[in-house]
Automatic annotation (TrEMBL):
One of its GO terms (molecular function) is dTDP-4-dehydrorhamnose 3,5-epimerase activity. It comes from Bizionia paragorgiae. Its EC number is 5.1.3.13. Catalyzes the epimerization of the C3' and C5'positions of dTDP-6-deoxy-D-xylo-4-hexulose, forming dTDP-6-deoxy-L-lyxo-4-hexulose. It is an enzyme of class 5 (isomerase). The keyword Isomerase applies. Belongs to the dTDP-4-dehydrorhamnose 3,5-epimerase family. One of its GO terms (biological process) is dTDP-rhamnose biosynthetic process. The active site is at H62 (proton acceptor), Y132 (proton donor). The record marks Y138 as: Participates in a stacking interaction with the thymidine ring of dTDP-4-oxo-6-deoxyglucose. It catalyses: dTDP-4-dehydro-6-deoxy-alpha-D-glucose = dTDP-4-dehydro-beta-L-rhamnose. PANTHER family: DTDP-6-DEOXY-D-GLUCOSE-3,5 EPIMERASE, THYMIDINE DIPHOSPHO-4-KETO-RHAMNOSE 3,5-EPIMERASE. This is dTDP-4-dehydrorhamnose 3,5-epimerase.
Amino acid sequence: MEVKTTKIKDCFILEPKVFKDSRGYFMESFNSKTFNTITGLPVDFVQDNESESTYGVIRGLHAQQGESAQAKLVRVLKGEVLDVVVDIRPDSETYLEHITVKLSAENKQQLFVPRGCLHGFSVLSEKATFFYKCDNYYNKESEVGIRYDDPDFDIDWQVSSEQALVSEKDLELPFYKDLKK
Ligand SMILES: Cc1cn([C@H]2C[C@H](O)[C@@H](COP(=O)(O)OP(=O)(O)O[C@H]3O[C@H](C)C(=O)[C@H](O)[C@H]3O)O2)c(=O)[nH]c1=O
């Protein structure tokens, strides 16, 4: 497993070792000991999630806060997405900055999204199956989110606004500046 840092503290890109042979390939998609050693983070995942979306879908930007804050280890099983992480940790050097990373079944890259960050993705392939491990359980009441098109962040989702397919819930999300403090 190779690990690359990003400008957002504790937000890592992980590249698992892929063993290819005449049958296809094998990889350890997750190994707790390896993960904790290479990231230095003692993360204990408790819930796996999976979603499938069609081209142009944008899910997010969401996070759970307080006692229910979640770190996520995300990857794509089918297709390709543009993954987006926005740092909303007030004491972080990259507060309100964001990164984008292309994750695909092809590149097999994974992204570790630390607690305290908003997360979302846009689907760049016809369909995408998205899989992620969470280190805390779902708690709807603790959810916060901002609109994907918040002008303060100017995120390029690589999907035109005409093609973007966003849930009613996500269209009703506030801009960051309007979040109840
Ligand atoms: C997240 C979640 C949802 N649900 C139920 C609640 C809804 O009835 C249904 C769809 O939920 P939602 O529309 O919030 O799903 P997404 O828009 O994909 O939400 C996710 O989007 C971005 C990309 C994230 O990083 C978060 O993990 C998560 O917020 O699944 C559950 O039962 N458990 C869960 O952990």
